[in-house]
Amino acid sequence: MKIMDNFIIKCNNCNNQMEIDKEDLEHISSSNERNMGPEIQHDFTGIYNCDKCSNEISFTISGWEYPSRINNYEDSTIDGGEFVDVPSVDINHENNEFNDNLF
């Protein structure tokens, strides 16, 4: 799973806007076994200090695959700021062993 595009956050303290590079986020995955196979949760997290006032802004963007390779649900939370552009996640089909085995 991947974040689709870079996105903008705004500081709640001074309203400064900052672009977040999707490649700079930490990505952690976990899974739980369910009826149709594993449900995989992907969390993309970031902590930034505002360029103007140094207010700390932290966020998590989460996506779930269930069944595997199907984008089931996504959610995002932010503290100290707000999303100007709400980030979205999608399945990363590049270099996907599952897709390579279909042909």
List its salient traits:
single chain; 103 residues; mainly beta; three-stranded antiparallel β-sheet; 9 strands; 4% helix; elongated
Could you spell the SSE succession in H and E letters?
EEEEEEEEEH
User: If strands are numbered along the chain, what order do they take across the biggest sheet?
Assistant: 4-5-6-7
Basic shape: elongated
Rounded average pLDDT: 91
What fraction strand?
over 45%
- Structural Rg: 16 Å
> Unreliable segments (pLDDT under 50, ≥5 consecutive)?
95-103
Tally of strands: 9
What is the tally of helical segments? Answer: 1
Assign a percent range to the helix content.
under 10%
3D architecture notes:
The protein has one helix spanning about 95-100; strands spanning about 1-5, 5-10, 15-20, 25-35, 35-50, 55-65, 70-80, 80-85, 90. The protein is mostly beta strands and about 100 residues long. A 4-stranded antiparallel β-sheet has the order 4-5-6-7, with no helix packed on it. It is elongated, with a radius of gyration of 16 Å. The two termini are about 20 Å apart. The relative contact order is 0.27.
What's the topology here?
Blueprint: E1 2-3, E2 7-11, E3 17-20, E4 26-34, E5 37-49, E6 56-65, E7 71-79, E8 81-83, E9 89-90, H1 97-100
Antiparallel strand pairs: 1-9, 2-3, 2-8, 4-5, 5-6, 6-7
Summarize this structure briefly:
By secondary structure, this protein is mainly β. The protein is built from 1 helix and 9 strands; from the N terminus they run βββββββββα. Strand 4 (26-34) and strand 5 (37-49) form a beta hairpin.
